[in-house]
Amino acid sequence: LLALVELRIPEALMAQGQDIPTLARRCAVPPDRMAVLVRAGVALGLLRLRRGQVGLTRRGAALTGVPGLEGMIRHHPFLYRDLADPVAFFRGETETELAAFWPYVFGAGAAADPGQAAEYSRLMADSQALVAEDTLRAVSLRGVARLVVAEERDPLL
Length: 157
What we know:
mainly alpha
């Protein structure tokens, strides 16, 4: 997933499909390795491969249009490096990169690095639409409008 995002493959496929050799040249990746990456994208449901042409699925197209999604994917390497020694991680014997990226978890360290704080703020701002959509899908708002109307009629409610 990270390789697809880093190589900007979804953007390359937005306008039209491409064959694997063309995509490989564009990304400076050997064609045999691009074929493996394309198959991985197909397995993830992000790419489709038909008659030698690689294209985007609807989910793959979302990678280019959903605010914050690319940023969320790009920060995952911090977690993977933090888990390089999972035993030490769970024993609390490691200094984690993710804790530095998300300074609010362990204290107010974001002020020490304004660039990191800006990156975090941008990621959080972009991802708010994702959180709001998921929340609204999961929560029934039936009856809420009547409560709001009742509050407007009687300010003491």
